[in-house]
Amino acid sequence: MFLGKSSEKQSAAKSKTKFSTYMKRYWQLYVLLAIPMIYLVVFKYAPMIYIQIAFKKYSIVQSVWEMPIAANHGFQYFIQAFQNPEFIRALRNTIVLNLLDLCIGFPIPIIFALILNELVFKRFKKAVQTIAYMPHFLSWVIIYGLAIQLFAPTTGLVNQAIEAMGGEAIPFLNDNFHWVWTYVFLGVWQSFGWNSIVYLAAIAGISPELYEAASVDGAGRFSKMWHITLPGIKPTIVILLIMAIGGILGSSFDRPFALQNNLVMNWAQVISTYVYQYGIKGLQFSLTTAVGLFQSVVGVFFLLMANWLSRKLGERGIW
Amino acid sequence: MKKKLLSVLLATSMVASLAACGSSETATDTTSSETATEETASESDAAESKTAAEGSASSSELVDGKFAETRHITVEVYDRGNDGGSDPTNNMYTKYIQDQMLEQHNVEVEFVKVPRWTEVDEINNLLAAQSAPDICVTYSYATIQTYADMGGVLDLSSYVNDYKDDLTNLWDWLGESNINWDKDPDTGSIWALEARLANQNRINTFIRKDWLDTLGLEEPTTKEEFYNVLVAFKENADTLLGDDADKMVPYSISYDVGWRAATLIESFMDPDITEKEYYINGFDDRKLTETGTKDAIQLLNTWYNEGLLWDDFAVYSSGDTTEDDMMKAGYVGAFTHNWDYPYRNGEDSIEANLKRLVGEDASYIAIDPFEDSNGTHTKWISGPIDRKIFFPVTNDEPLASLLYLDFISDPETIQYLQIGDEGVTHTVADNGAIQIIAAEGDAIQNSGMNIDYTITCNGLHLTDDDLTTLSLAYSYAEVDPELIIRADEIAKTDTREIGNVQVGAIASETGVGEALSSKRDQVYDTAVSAAADAFESTWETGMADYLASGGQAIIDERTTAWEATYGDATELPQN
Q1: Side-chain-side CA neighbours of residue B536 (13 Å)
Q2: A244 alpha-carbon distance from chain centroid
Q3: Same domain, A250 and A210
Q4: Given CB atoms, is A258 within the 8 Å cutoff of chain B?
Q5: For position B62, what pLDDT does the model report?
Q6: Residue A205: pLDDT over 70
Q7: A220, A254: one domain
Q8: A27 and chain B: CB distance < 8 Å anywhere?
Q9: Does a structural domain hold residue A80?
Q10: CA-based, 20 to 30 A from A248: which of A74, B58, B436, B560?
Q11: What's the pLDDT at B3?
Q12: Are A32 and A135 in the same domain?
């Protein structure tokens, strides 16, 4: 008893000294860690206090705690959003455009990375890589400027070429159906190079011995790609896929906003531009906070679903 | 050792700076919002006690119109971002205003610039951040109403009446009608004062005079003649433009069809429409829901499919200069726009560019080709109102701010700001007309006639009325005065002014203005560019969507509000 107590004390003192020597040795790392933590708290968590205006009647002159609860037990703005045909349309468009982006935009960087990996000439490979990365650094406003020069119905370069060859102009920007593909294509063009970097890094991590062994066994290029490279980067692919699915209801603002025009708004209005138009320009902050909250909740749900599914299928999830 | 020391130093300094940033930000944030709410509370108290006290002895704070202690106010001014313009917050005119205000009223004036083309967004941000200038100016009454509903705007009704004796210039210039324009019929509150439009000209259609002459055509005076002229332009594109024939646009419109074909659309309206009818459908200032508009758009659709309009009009958005550049380069035969559009901007005007790029003969003249069902050319003009001036609740110098408005409405002030100094910004012609010349440096007027400073007045207004009319024609640098006189006359032909309907705020209009305007543009744009056989369905779907998105609710509420105020009457009561 007596002995135990003293040993307890001892171990407590020991762990205390352990902790202080530990901190003495590593405190710099904690100081460094504090920087991103403070950033997160100030810019990501503190603003979340304002999520409550989704359930409250917003007023500019009241503090967020004093604002009165909205009608229908606070759910007035959610009901209002779902009764608005424009919001339903924005929701549909967001899902459709993001799904297309996912189906087309997701595999292309993988394929590109695989092809790059097979290139033998180092210089050629580097040149291709640089060219493919470049569009990533262009803002969407500039890309739209390029698009209108190339794809405008009558004055666009592409359409002029088509007409010169006797064809009929293609309404890339002014017809709903074509616009959707232009949107997807420009998105893929802008990001596939950049997105392939992660895969290239993953490929670089695969042990060369595997390839050597496969060569000895008489495997060709394609079977090496199929049986070694792809399985090697599978965990990376799965993690990125989960994150992409989590963002199915999210949407960037600048891409649709820069590309949309009045003729295609029925397919170009997405949640982010809807929030801008109704919330910021129309001063309906409560309504659009409700929409944003809905978007986030659904996003989290999809993320969890995808994560759960990938673990079910024997892959590692994100956590 | 050295390395370690350095890394420690670096890390701590980084953390310190970041923490300082973060903490000070949040700290000021909370305190500012707290003090702001406190301020509004104490302010409304003060305002009440003030008005109560002022009731008997007005403006005890002023001695000879001057404050005993120097006051400080901030005033919004539009920033147009002109190439080579002067600094909107610091130039010859702001110095004049600042000196005079200090001398006459002992009030220090500070200007706050707000980008002209995104003014509504910017003012929203400033109001939301409680940092809006004391005197705010906007074209959007809906914005003011929204903030007023939240308690963010000062009610001016008691101020303008209590201090009436100190505000003679303001009352003389704006008059009962503009001051009480936005008065709520129930509560009597006034959230904003309406600036006065000295010249109510609205819109005109312009055509290339030299093209008409080359082809030996008469000026069109009816829709049919106008159509024939457009067809003639297109058929003779080779003669008119040579190698650039394929770039010709006989009649140009933009994505904003409702404005850029307004003369045509309005000619399909019933010229004898009742004021009630006009008001009920009047939320959309582009006449989308008026009867007759569909026919007008169908006509445009026909023209579009015949290749008489600009094919790509809808893919270029607001602020894009592609269309103006086409006009300047001489590819556009006719277009509809602000009554003096091609003559604006001095050396950079469409007219001046056209003369430089195409030739001395090239010129746009105003025409009046769209007859209505009475055979007249009715131009619908709104009342003589322009921008709306309001004070946010953060304004703690309402009297000093009103004195500013009074000073800026003084005819002498308006005249000086509009024409500046002789030899610097204007010359006097032999017939006495004031002629604006291109100024340099500090004296450059960023906006035509400095309307950005004369916030209570839009349009040339000199102390002598006859001189005003004469000078108007000479106020466009580099443009033949005859063209202006002609455009002015046509813009004033068959005008019908719609009175001020005062039925209080319409709740369903709050917050939907921007969204409905963009929806309306979509309806117009898709309908104009639809294939001929798809026009009917495109129009109907678009309209149904517009009405379902809030358009119908507004029409219904406006009907109810009209009937509640004016009963069965279909016209406004005559005062």
Answers
A1: 1
A2: 6
A3: yes
A4: no
A5: 85
A6: yes
A7: yes
A8: no
A9: yes
A10: A74
A11: 53
A12: no
Q: How many CB atoms lie within 10 A of CB B118?
A: 12
Cα–Cα distance between B400 and B106 in angstroms, integer?
A: 9
- Give the CATH number, domain containing residue A269: 1.10.3720.10
CB-based contact (8 Å) between A281 and chain B? Answer: yes
State the nearest Cα–Cα gap between A89 and chain B, in angstroms. Answer: 11
Tell me how many domains chain A contains: 2
Q: Kindly state whether A51 is in contact with chain B, defined as any CB-CB distance less than 8 angstroms.
A: no
- The topology under which CATH files domain B54-200+384-463 is D-Maltodextrin-Binding Protein; domain 2 (3.40.190)
pLDDT in tens, A175-189: 999 999 999 999 999
Q: Please state the ipTM of this predicted complex.
A: 0.80
Query: Is A60's CB within 8 Å of B511's CB?
Result: no
Q: What is the structure's pLDDT at B345?
A: 81
The residue whose two tokens read 């610039």 is B113
Beta strands in chain A (DSSP E): none
Q: What is the DSSP letter of A101?
A: I
Q: CA–CA separation, A181 vs A61, rounded Å?
A: 45
Banded pLDDT at B36 (limits 50, 70, 90): very low
Nearest one of B472, B401, B469, B522 to B137, comparing CA atoms:
B401
- Matching residue, tokens 């890309």: A143
* DSSP helix/strand/coil, A55: helix
CATH for B203-381 is 3.40.190.10
Tell me how far apart the alpha carbons of residues B409 and B407 are, in angstroms, rounded to a whole number: 5
* Residues A24, A112 within the same domain: no
How does pLDDT run across A130-169, given as a tens digit for each residue? Answer: 999 999 999 999 999 999 999 988 888 999 999 899 888 8
Q: Do B34 and A63 touch (CB under 8 A)?
A: yes
Report which secondary-structure segment, H or E, holds B270: none
Please tell me the predicted confidence (pLDDT) of residue B334: 97
Q: Which amino acid would we find at residue B228?
A: N
Closest Cα in chain B, distance from residue A248 (Å): 25
* Residue A64 counted as domain residue: no
Residue B329 CA to residue B242 CA, distance in Å, equals 13
Tell me the torsion sign for CA atoms B430, B431, B433, B436.
negative
